[in-house]
Every structure is written in C-alpha cells, then in structure tokens.
C-alpha cells in the first residue's frame, strides 16, 4: 500500500497572492503531489498551504517551496499578528496512511538537513522530530519571534538543529524555519438541537481536555478558586487531545461544538462524537449530526464505521464503501451539506489525480481491456484478479455466517475472519494494477537509448530492476493466494453450511491464481541473469504450488462431504 504523508507549511505572506502563487506552483510542479488547500490571512500576513503525496514527493515539494519562499519573502520587512520567525515559518509533516510516526520523523529530519545545508536556513526540529523535550513545543522554538532570532541562534542553548548558527544578511532575510512531525489534526463540528451558545459551551467544557475553571458556588459566575501558586484550578474534561468551544452558526440556525482533535490516535472522531452525545443528553440537549472541516484520512473514517458496526453486532469485513456509508450516517456528516467521500478523504483525492486503475473498471470494461490488442493486462493481472475473487467468496461466507440467525454469539468470530479475508482481497486487487505496471516498466527499460557504454550500462540495469519487479509481483500473488486459503478453509469447516459450495469455488480460484501467477514467475525468471535469485524464487514458488494443491484438496473434501450429507 502506498505511503502518504501530509505537509502543512505556513508562509509569512498573506497579502501578495502573486508570491503565494509562485510558491504553490513549485509544490504542484512535483509529480504525484496533490495540493489540497491554500488559506491566506491578511491580518496575520500568513498563508497556510496543505498538500499530500508519497514521503519522497512531499520532502521534495516542501524543500522547493521553502527555497522559493526564501527568495521571495524578506523577513526584515514582515509585519503580522501571528507569531513568526521565518519566510517559511513552520513546516510539519503528518503521517496519513501506511506510515509510522517514526518513519515520518526520519523524513522530517531529512528535509531539515537539506534546508539547513543546501539553503543555509536555520532549522529547529519540533514536536515528534525534536531532539530534546525542551524543543518539542513550537512556541519554545519560536520564542521572541523573528526579532529575537539573531540572539537566539548564536547562543549555545538555542543553536539550530540544522543550518547556520551565525547571523548573516541571508539569514536576516529568510529567518528560521521550524520543521517537525505531528499527528493529524481534524477540525470537526458537532451540531446541537439548540441555539444557545452558553449551553453549547457548557458541553464543550465537559469534553475538552482543558476542561473548565473551578468556581465557588455557581459554575459560571462563582468566584474562581486558585491553587497555592495563585493559578486557577481546572476541572479537566473527559477527552484527551481535544480542544473545543461552543458557538452559534447563523447560516444554519444552530449551535455547534467546534472541536480540534489534535491527535486522532488518542481521541478519534467517533469517540469524540459519542462523548458529546452523552454530555449533551445529560444537559437535555440532542446531537443532530456533525460537520467535517477540511479532509480526513481513510483509516479515520473506516475506524468510525467499524466502531458503529460493532455496536450493532455486525461484521466489519465488508467493503470500504459500505463502511464509510455507515460512518457518514452514524456521525450525521451529511446533515448540513452532502458528504462526498471522493472530495473529503485524502486517499481518494490522491486516486483522482493518478488516473483510472484496472481494479476500478467494471466487469465488462476489464474483460474488454484484457481482450484488446494491448499486451497488458495479461495473465499476471488475471491471476491476481482470480485470486481476489476466490477470497471474496470466502469473505462472503464469513459475512453470511456473522448474520446467520441463531449464531449471534459467533458474530465477532466470523467478523474477524471476514476482515482478514477483506485484507487479502484488497491486496490481490492491488496486484492487478501492479502486474501491469511491472510489464510497462520492462517496456520502458527496453526503450532506453544505448548509443554509448554509459547508456548501455544504465539500460541494462534498468531492465534488470524492472525484470526483478516483474518477478516479485506474481510471486506476491502466489503468496497472498495461498495465505487466503486459510480463511476459505475455515469457512468450509465452520461457516454457514448453506454457502459451503461458495467456499469450494473460492478454493478453486485461489489455487488457479497460484498456478497462473507461477507461469509469470517462470517466464520472467527464464532469462534473468541473477541465477542465485532465480533459483531461490523458483524453489519457493514450487513449494507454494504444492501447498496450494494440498490445501485445495482438503477444502474440496470438506465441501463435498458437507454437500453429500
């Protein structure tokens, strides 16, 4: 699965849109980058830009943007209401999908090193990328703002993590940049059946991490109670990593709880929603729906849908589309305006920019494309697709079993099998396009020039790399298809007996996928020069073939015995 990270650089220019356009142009000029938002502020004289892509693409785009901003923005002339200390004031990297925070920190450090060394800009690493707890806070790194920067970077305590620690005309112009890694922040509003801002605020104080100030007597007008240091005592709210306030929205004629979920790994959307529902109920108020501001990672929506499915004692091993529908309806995300997953979920926005995939075609389109005069998709893609259909049947049996009348106490058991089957199905569907892409890489490598020794060597290496990839993909199909037979066998043994024949067909498809992919492995290894690699691959592939045949035999015996009985 493709790794995706988000980058949210803040540039110290919010009035001259020609400057901002030059910066965003270099971002969009990096292939694979999707620009999601450009939000300029006149009073703050600051623009927040949001874009996403693969880690390497994002690092490249961020570097180019920081470079461009440094050439266009002179911090010696900058004025604005928002704290700032550099042309690119802050540049956080945010893990979105299939990437850990630890990996994201590595990319943040890679970017910081490039900016410091190649651009000569002082860089402070903050949040998860910080070298010490003292530098974790952005406010600490930026203390005193631009006006204090000369004194700070030349001190031993606040020497930059990367880049120059001496003052120069260049640094005076660019200022410094804070580069970090942080969790995804979601702006999320929850709708109430009231117009009272005061009541909405009361609920917000119930749930937000900061809670409310403790008072004597009346919780609103009573005297504030201070601690021994003279600071107000606070009653913490029920949700960690949540900021919240109540307000009235004239456009919709309702009050809302406006929330920032600053770490959805701690408090995800669905938990925040349910907690506000409960606190509102205690105050005689009802939640009617919610509103997502900006975009959201796919996993956050899937986690929400699965949460509500489990509360209903339903299987979670269904399609992402169905899970997202459950999430949208359960959270009431379509109450105020239509919720379009293609426009609100980051991964789907990325797909829109990458063109149509084979796996997204309908059955007729895929069959016609296969039958066309083009050599791809070919047997490798078809093998992957057959494998995905095989495990789809096993997953179907698991879902039917989870809903079988009288089997309510086994819902979780079959839901787990269905969820596992769904992962194999998606992985094999991905291989449909991966196999065709592998073939295209070989064709591209064969088309490289070879007019001199350097070009010949580069072409030879490109062909070798592309061929190895063309071997790895069908080998992956073989592995996945064999592994998927565990789910199919479990459904043949313990699943809904009325669907046992479907498990049998699933086993036939899985074994066919294994043998079909093996043909691609063999043809791609036949002329490969790395004989040690080839021998290792063929040995493993033969073992997979034998295991798949044996597993198919066991499953079909189970199926036929149940049909006979």
Written account of the structure:
By secondary structure, this protein is α+β, with helices and mostly antiparallel strands. It folds into three domains: 178 residues, Formiminotransferase-cyclodeaminase, Chain B, domain 1; 165 residues, Alpha-Beta Plaits (2-Layer Sandwich); 209 residues, Four Helix Bundle (Hemerythrin (Met), subunit A) (Up-down Bundle), CATH 1.20.120. The chain is built from 18 helices and 13 strands. Strands 1, 2, 3, 4, 5, 6 and 7 form a seven-stranded mixed β-sheet that branches. Strand 3 and strand 4 form a beta hairpin. The chain is flat, with a radius of gyration of 28 Å. The mean pLDDT is 93.
What would the average pLDDT be, to the nearest integer?
93
Shape field = flat
- Strand runs, count: 13
CATH C-level category of the largest domain: Mainly Alpha
Multimeric state = single chain
Distance between the termini: 43 Å
Runs in which pLDDT lies below 50 for 5 or more consecutive residues are: none
Estimated share of beta-strand residues: 5-15%
Q: How many separate domains? A: 3
CATH topology annotation of the largest domain: Four Helix Bundle (Hemerythrin (Met), subunit A)
Number of helices: 18
How helical, in percent, are the residues? 40-55%
* CATH superfamily annotation of the largest domain: Formiminotetrahydrofolate cyclodeaminase monomer, up-and-down helical bundle
Structural class per helix/strand content?
Answer: alpha+beta
Rg, please?
Answer: 28 Å
